[in-house]
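Task card 7
Instruction: Convert sequence to structure tokens.
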Amino acid sequence: MARFSIDGRLRMDIGGLAQTSGAILVAAAWRLLGAGALWLVGRRLITFALRVLRSALAREQFDPTLARYFQTGLNIILNVALVVAILGFFGVETTRVLTRRASSTSSRSSSVPRTG
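Output:
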């Protein structure tokens, strides 16, 4: 982008800078739109799965308290999967982050002496 002229002064290529930044902004906008679409479709699928679980448990006359626990658990699992999918869409390696976090937590807990 920056170039030196014959007299030694630094000159900016404004046209090239605008073209490059425009291409980057368009690519980022498409990624954001794709992530938004992924989020909308994912939320619809999660709502559908929860509705199917709710109706199946009601049909079997399952205990309402346990049914609510299952629905909440499924909701949490599916939302975490959706967030991981969206982060993966942006190129974030969530498995590496999660394994590092788990290994640091387990190494910290194993270094604590046990009493009793």
